[in-house]
Trehalose synthase (Saccharothrix variisporea), 516 residues
Amino acid sequence: MKLTRTADLWWKNAVVYCLDVETFHDSDGDGHGDFRGLTQKIDHLHNLGVTCVWLMPFFPSPDRDDGYDITDFYGVDPRLGTHGDFVEFVRTARDRGIRVIADLVVNHTSDQHPWFQEARSSKDNPRRDWYVWRDQPPPDAEKGVVFPDKEKSLWELDKKTGQYYLHRFYKHQPDLNVANPEVRDEIARVMGFWMELGLSGFRVDAVPFLLEAPVQDLPDPHDYLCDLRAFLSRRNGEGVLLGEVNLPYTDTMKFFGSADGVGDELNMCFDFIGMQQMYLSLARKDASPLTHALKERPLPPRDCHWATFVRNHDELTLDKLTEPERQEVFAAFGPDPDMQLYGRGLRRRLPSMLDGDLRRIKMVYSLLFALPGTPVLFYGEEVGMTEDLSQEGRLAVRTPMWWDAAREQRHDDDSLLSWIKQLIRAYRDCPELAWGTYELIDTPEPAVLAHRCDIDGGTVIAVHNLGDEEAELDLSSVDGELTDVFTEQPVKPKFTLEPYGCRWLRAWAEGVQVSR
Ligand code: NOJ
């Protein structure tokens, strides 16, 4: 059992920070960010306590889906820098103990990618089978359109050759055919290339769609994911795959794989369900939707972990809520139709959804770091960035990083930035949270979520008040003296939690020493 807590499982207590090079920091004043700018800002990330940077796509692209439409998987978008700049960044990050992963967007390419240009040139082109073609779209071609504001079907007629190609996303993003062994080899080459240049793994875009393509040709598409993971681990023993899988828990679990209960596919999957239920809880000021989700959430296989998040670069999707639940969250956090997107989500960031209430915002980030799972921050969350609704669609949440706010908040002990730094320090300092087992603690207060994490006899208890009224807590049933993790002051087992309050407490049982 001891071997379950070795340091090479670094992702289990990582702090992941997602950013887009283009909006992070502009080193040469040409109007958009670049790798040199990012490298200049590495100490912001280091001081924050980030241990892993996730880079959104930085590859050459016509930019019709903010870089998720790639024309060269081996290149660096010249606006952002060169391979040299990329390597300097990765090297500088490593010097600060920060690993770097990047988006692996191989469900599709841009329609401008030379592979697709060749493939569409004629039916007998050698690249034809790199994409997915049909003479007629299937009867359910409209089902599952991801961007309903722009697309009506998953299949688009290619006029020249008279066949339809599959595109899960926009029609300018034709799906690659992963049933084709050449495509699978090429994807491995892409991964191998960036790992040679220093990446420690990938955030895998749209995993269920990647595996779904022409399923009839891949009897068990999970074998492919398993192969990818094996390849990654051979090349880099600590390489990680963090997957975008937005499905109900039982379906998502399949993407961890399960060889001997250890997990042999994705190391981490985002917890989309818990995230959505958290917003429902916030809207209702009632912890039970989140508590319920946590009770439902299966334990991942041994070396795997859930990745938890408050916001990401896409709309805040509420697609797994029921229609009335979604309307409740819309009413609370995005009543204006212009704040809503695709009928399922909100193009907003947290601070504006919570009307700038710093107590409440701080409580939500406390939850993020206290609940089990690897926390993933989206750039700007640490300084309370808000959205800009004048930008189109999801770009509202992808505006340039607020460096002025970072400067102002750095020396203010009460700022959000200082709070998030403290949370990260405490999270890294409490091995119970990332490595331990966890249990929900019953409280009579409906607005309070209380849980404990335990490892090697050490215990951390966290209590969060999602409501706007005081709550009475009684932790007398917990063994040992309680101290506040942040102030290190003793705490009585009965106490009042202020509206939107939170506490992390360590229970000191006699004779127990928790190794870090
Ligand atoms: C999921 C990404 O998160 C999103 O931003 C993108 O538009 C689609 N995949 C297509 O790549």
Notes: The pocket of 1-deoxynojirimycin is lined by residues 65, 68, 105, 169, 205-206, 244, 313-314 (CB under 6 Å). The radius of gyration is 23 Å.
